[in-house]
Write a structure and sequence with these properties.
150 residues; alpha+beta; Alpha-D-Glucose-1,6-Bisphosphate, Chain A, domain 4; 3 helices; globular
Length: 150
């Protein structure tokens, strides 16, 4: 199961970064390159524990939908979401926030399992893991830009 980790320091208060990260509208803004749109569940504003959102987007040239649910939350330090329906066999995305003297350290850990057994493992090795790493990094960088403009 591939695990993608990405840390970024954001010069903004922890509560603000935490809220930006779980804001559906901000998510759509930070993933504009894939055209992500919230089409069901929470479609605007802040998500809370137990909330779901269904995303429609284009990844790797393929239109797809994916439903995620926030299963754990400890504001403003941590939340975890999982895929409950979508193209992956499964995924878990952990978001951790640590207050520092320089702002907020945001830590993403994204674990996923591709579908299709051996073919999925091969896809991970050839392109999918790199694609997902870039996706997580780009979103974090865009989030940092928004947070630091306040």
């Amino acid at each position: 199961m591939p695990t993608i980790k990405y840390d970024i320091l954001i010069d903004a208060p922890i509560e603000y970064v935490f809220d930006l990260t779980r804001d559906v509208d901000v998510h759509m803004q930070t993933t504009a390159n894939t055209g992500e749109q919230a089409i069901a569940g929470v479609t605007h504003g802040l998500m809370e524990k137990g909330d779901t959102v269904t995303w429609k987007a284009k990844h790797l040239g393929v239109k797809q939908t994916l439903t995620a649910k926030i299963i754990e939350m400890n504001r403003p330090y941590y939340f975890k979401d999982i895929m409950i329906k979508g193209a992956f066999h499964s995924f878990t995305h952990t978001h951790e926030f640590i207050e520092t003297d320089q702002g907020t350290l945001m830590k993403d850990v994204f674990q996923y399992q591709s579908p299709l057994g051996f073919i999925g493992v091969l896809a991970d090795q050839l392109f999918l893991e790199k694609y997902m790493q870039r996706f997580i990094e780009r979103r974090a960088i865009e989030l940092k830009k928004i947070a630091e403009m306040r």
